[in-house]
Amino acid sequence: MNKDQDPAQNGNLVQPNYNTFRVSPNGELTPVDNSTVSVAYGSSPSQALIAPKRPVVFGADFLGGLVQSFRVAQDGTLQQNPPQALPQSVFTGLTGGHLPLGMRTHPSQQILYVDITPISEVAVYTYDEKGVLSFVRTVPDSGTAPCWAVVNHAGTRLYATNTGDNSIAVYDLKDPLNPVQIQHFVMASTTGAVFSTVIDQTDQFIYVSSEQGSSTATPAANAFHTLKVNSDGTLSEPFSPTVLPIDGSVPVRAQGITVIGAR
Q1: HSE-CB for 244 with a 13 A CA cutoff
Q2: How many CB atoms lie within 10 A of CB 14?
Q3: For the segment 204-217, what is each residue's pLDDT rounded down to a tens digit?
Q4: What are residue 245's DSSP bridge partners?
Q5: What is the dihedral of CA 137, 51, 172, 93, to 10 degrees?
Q6: Residue 209 is part of a domain; what is its CATH number?
Q7: N- or C-end of the chain: fewer Cβ atoms within 10 A?
Q8: What is the pLDDT of residues 153-189, one digit of tens each?
Q9: According to the 3-state scheme, what is the secondary structure of 52-75?
Q10: Under 8 Å between Cβ of 161 and 194
Q11: pLDDT of 213-233, one tens digit each?
Q12: Contact 17/38 with Cβ under 8 angstroms?
């Protein structure tokens, strides 16, 4: 959960923050007392990602240029580790924000992958039992503006969604600390700007949402793509995208997609 400085959303100037909630057997959410961790105004927390099999949560402060990590205590409160700024050395010649966005963990190793949108690279981190991060390297993405990422359940492939050129970068994780790109897959059908991505439990299909990213785009830009994962982990698009039934009288950005048993 986060609230930013947009006057229409945050008139009382509540700082952007991370929170935890208890989930009851019937699905009801109850805020955990004293679990709020506030971050700087304008930092725009964009994702909260739970590490597999560990009481650790990662966050991306998109406009703040920081990667957050927290240890989740037994009472559900968050114990914040020192935030990690993306290394300045990877931003040669860039004058704008550093903009970390999509994150994904390796399913069996203590590794975190972070998309760095403005320079089209993926950062690789390791983390310890408390979630403290250590930067390893960045690897290039031949697409433009990576925003979200998924790793298959076997831990053999990483998929980065490139909003800037409607593509997916596919990486071989034979060495999970040094991903190697093996495909730059451009969507067969032109809809909107591709955004969030999810892989199903079988690792056979990837689903991608696209959005009406500009006022000049048509409502048909809001769509879901179904991608087939081939035996070597590369992608194909066997079906036409499913255009969402959204009223086109005003621009709408359809964001977010999931499937049962997804990662």
Answers
A1: 23
A2: 15
A3: 999 998 877 666 65
A4: none
A5: -30
A6: 2.130.10.10
A7: N
A8: 999 999 999 998 989 999 999 999 999 999 999 986 6
A9: CCCCEEEEEECCCCEEEEEEECCC
A10: yes
A11: 666 656 667 888 899 999 999
A12: yes
Residue 50 is assigned to a structural domain of this protein: yes
The H or E element spanning position 217 is none
Reading the block at residue 174, the tokens are 């034979």
The whole-angstrom distance between residue 245's C-alpha and the CA centroid of its chain comes to 25
Q: Is 120 contained in some domain?
A: yes
The answer to whether residue 250 scores a pLDDT higher than 70 is no
125 lies in some domain: yes
Instruction: Read off the pLDDT of residues 92-126 as tens digits, 9 standing for 90 and up.
Output: 877 778 999 999 999 999 999 999 999 999 999 99
Does 31 map to a domain? no
CB 222 within 8 A of CB 192: yes
70 and 54 Cβ atoms separated by less than 8 Å: no
Q: What are phi and psi of 118, to 5 degrees?
A: -75, -20
User: Who contacts 93 (Cβ-Cβ below 8 Å, separation ≥6)?
Assistant: none
Distances in whole angstroms, Cα of residue 218 to Cα of each of 169, 192, 252 = 26, 8, 10
How many distinct structural domains can be found in the chain? 1
Tokens of 196: 């969030």
- Expressed as residue numbers, the domain containing 57 is 40-243
Residue 94: its pLDDT value, please? 78
